Amino acid sequence: MPAADDTVRLEWMDVAVGGDIHRVVLAGVNLDSRRSLRERMEWLAGPGDGLRRLLIEPPYGRPAFCVDLLTPPARPDAEAGFLIMEVMGYPYFSGSNTMATACALLESGRIPRETDEGVQCVRLEAPGGAVVAGVTLRAGRVVAVEVEGDEAFVARADARVEVPGLGTVAYDLVWSGGHYVLVDAEAVGLAPERADGDEALALAARIIEAVQADFDLAHPVLGDVGLPRFLHWMWPAREEGAGRWAATGGTYGHPGVLWSCPTGTGTVARLAHLGRLGRAGIGTTLRNTSPAGTTFEGTVVGEGTVGDCPSIRTRVSGEPRSVARMSMEIPATSPLVAERGLLWLLGET
Predict the structure, then answer these.
(1) Is 94 a catalytic residue?
(2) pLDDT at residue 1 greater than cutoff 60
(3) CA neighbor of 102 nearest in space, from 78, 86, 85
(4) Which residues contact 12 (CB under 8 A, 6 or more apart)?
(5) Contacts for 120-123 with beta carbons within 8 Å, 24 or more apart?
(6) How far apart are CA 204 and CA 104, in angstroms?
(7) Catalytically annotated residue among 33, 36, 94, 108
(8) In this model, does residue 2 exceed pLDDT 70?
(9) Handedness of CA 300, 305, 311, 316 (dihedral sign)
(10) What angle do CA 190, 194, 195 make, to 5 degrees?
């Protein structure tokens, strides 16, 4: 039993990226740094999952919030590690979450600023591996972040799934920090202005659940990384010049969330899709705008292979802004601690 004066204390910074709140947890969580970041993530996904629920569920959060937990890196070349928590679980990599984490590290002083006017390179580690963020500062404040991270590739092209009440739906399955189901939105009669409505969210859920029903695909390097929980709605891409594309794309996280930003990994997944169609190579850029009207820009900077699949490396840019510095104290005897199973926060695990 906890002592009467035991208290769970958390400190975080809320960072807005493309209209979505990312909660970067700065202090209050001590994970065993002898474990790899993937092992720490897997522990959180099991007995530690109450932390994610505390910060993205009412009364203190919303399902569209994202959480980034700072943790010591395992890689000697990384300045910090971070674990990503969202409504769908625990992605291995995320562009917008990397932007938010880099922003919070510099603006909180966790990483010293090397310049007040210019670009600083921040080297991070996510469960999926190394991540490099180029942070642009003006007057000592973060105004933009460009992220280079996980390789993306089309794992299944021109796949089909039978969706009850809808019929056959075509999709590409792309790895981009998680399994992404890419669907032509116009083929299912979905307009951008309806993408965040209840009917569209239910439609995305039905497609994801149909794909999950007989899913057995592992990542060629990471192995079993779970079921697909992301869907990216694609509206037609427009070629605005040689190697320059623009599109509207919306990322759904299962269950029940359409993010305001197009997401970094959704943008990269769309670039991988364009590459499969022969429309993108090194140097190609995509300006991807969400149904809410916020934009990320992605650029292909390299090509390779992951397993037997052709892959791309990309840079994705956005404009994170710190909006609040928060702290929370919860008595260990609070019913909230018991309901979320949070007593582990009183020590290292």
Answers:
(1) yes
(2) no
(3) 78
(4) 23, 24, 25, 26, 55, 325, 326, 327
(5) 122/79, 122/80, 123/77, 123/78, 123/79
(6) 32
(7) 94
(8) no
(9) negative
(10) 75
The Cα 264–Cα 255 span in angstroms is 19
Phi/psi at 337 (5° precision): -65, -45
What is the location of CATH 3.10.310.10 in the chain?
Answer: 7-149+322-346, 152-317
Contact 107, 322 (CB under 8 A): yes
Between the alpha carbon of residue 272 and those of residues 71, 95, 268, 286, the distances in Å are 30, 15, 6, 11
What CATH class has 7-149+322-346? Answer: alpha beta
- Residues 298 and 149: beta-carbon distance below 8 Å: no
pLDDT in tens, 263-307: 999 999 999 999 999 999 999 999 999 999 999 999 999 999 999
Q: Contact, 186 vs 235, CB < 8 A?
A: yes
311 is written with which tokens?
Answer: 């892959």
Which CATH number describes the domain made up of 152-317? 3.10.310.10
- Written as one letter, the residue type at 303 is E
Contact (CB, 8 A) for 142 and 193: no
Tokens in use for 317?
A: 């840019």
CB proximity list for 86: less than 8 A, separation 6 or greater = 56, 66, 67, 94, 253, 257
Residue 348, pLDDT score: 67
This model's pTM is above 0.90: yes
